[in-house]
Specification:
Blueprint lengths: L6 E5 L7 H18 L2 E5 L4 H11 L3 E4 L10 H8 L9 H8 L1 H9 L18 E5 L9 E3 L2 H10 L6 E5 L3 E9 L2 E2 L3 E4 L7 H5 L5 E3 L6 H17 L5 E9 L4 E7 L9 H7 L5 H15 L2
Parallel strand pairs: 1-2, 1-3
Antiparallel strand pairs: 4-5, 4-6, 7-8, 7-9, 7-11, 9-10, 11-12
């Protein structure tokens, strides 16, 4: 593959609540593209009309999607690129739309006997529960609630979100599995000093501990990886994804969500997982591009 002749459109920014994280991911990827010698151009699709006209003018061989949240991770940008016949990294528009909706993802996977936390309505709630927006990433708006007054506060905090997910709180170990072009990478266990793996612990805390590969009994490790790969295949994911689990105290892995545009910042989990099998950040970026070019003929 001659990188010099290959034009890459790097998409980051956007207008979602995760814009700042997308910029961090995008700049890290941009640095890698520079080091790899790719011919690339950056696009920030805040204004859709301008973005469409600019990207059509550039006519890239592939678009590298580094957009997080709504507009970038929910199938919208993928549908636009599909319409104009532009190849891109990651999953297709339908898969992206389904995976962005945590409730829908769980409803589908439940039918394939993949364990997921139970959902509640406000009428049948059993404390403790987790409340979160069904269609946000980066742990934005996640609340762990132990009683009625905490529930009221959480509902007040989340009042601007259209769809709220109320699910059983499962005490256990936080695990994540990255998959790259069909290949399951080593599992990471995330240990936080305070609370849970929320926005602060995810992107800004230096006290969050990442154990890779996670120290798990062989049978448990195989089960977690098998569920992650099955979910990837069932939902027709492509390229790089991250599958998040809670491992309960009786060693049952519960799948929480699937992230179709995993973060690529210095705190991110996909690069840590890839590093554990010897990939540099540049090699990871290159693999994502090669996977997209091979996948979407």
């Amino acid at each position: 593959m001659n990188k010099g002749n290959l034009k890459v459109a790097l998409l980051y920014g956007g207008d979602s609540s995760e814009r700042q994280i997308s910029i961090k991911t995008g700049k890290a990827v941009e640095n890698a593209l520079k080091n790899l010698g790719y011919d690339y151009k950056v696009f920030d699709p805040v204004e859709k009309q301008k973005f469409i006209s600019d990207i059509l003018k550039y006519n890239p061989d592939v678009a590298f999607i580094a957009l997080h949240g709504k507009g970038g991770e929910d199938g919208q940008i993928q549908a636009i690129l599909d319409f104009f016949g532009i190849r891109y990294t990651g999953s297709g528009s339908k898969t992206s739309a389904i995976c962005m909706d945590k409730k829908l993802t769980k409803d589908i996977l439940k039918n394939y006997s993949i364990p997921v936390p139970e959902d509640y309505t406000l009428e049948d709630i059993k404390f403790p529960v987790v409340l979160k927006p069904s269609e946000e990433g980066s742990s934005i708006g996640v609340h762990i609630v132990f009683n009625k007054s905490q529930l009221e506060k959480a509902l007040q905090d989340l009042k601007n979100y259209e769809n709220i997910l109320i699910e059983e709180y499962i005490k256990g170990r936080e695990l994540t599995v990255s998959i790259l072009n069909d290949k399951v990478l080593p599992i990471i266990e995330i240990k936080v000093k305070n609370g849970f793996y929320d926005y602060e612990n995810k992107y800004f805390s230096n006290e969050t501990e990442y154990i890779c590969p996670a120290k798990l009994p062989f049978v448990v490790e195989e089960k977690v990886k098998a569920y992650a790969k099955r979910a990837y295949n069932i939902l027709k994911c492509k390229g790089a994804v991250r599958v998040d689990f809670i491992l309960s105290e009786d060693d049952t892995p519960y799948l929480l969500e699937i992230n179709t545009v995993p973060g690529m910042t210095e705190h991110s989990l996909l690069p840590k997982s890839a590093k554990a099998i010897g990939y540099t950040f540049e090699q990871l970026v290159n693999e994502i591009i090669v996977g997209a070019l091979n996948e979407k003929k």
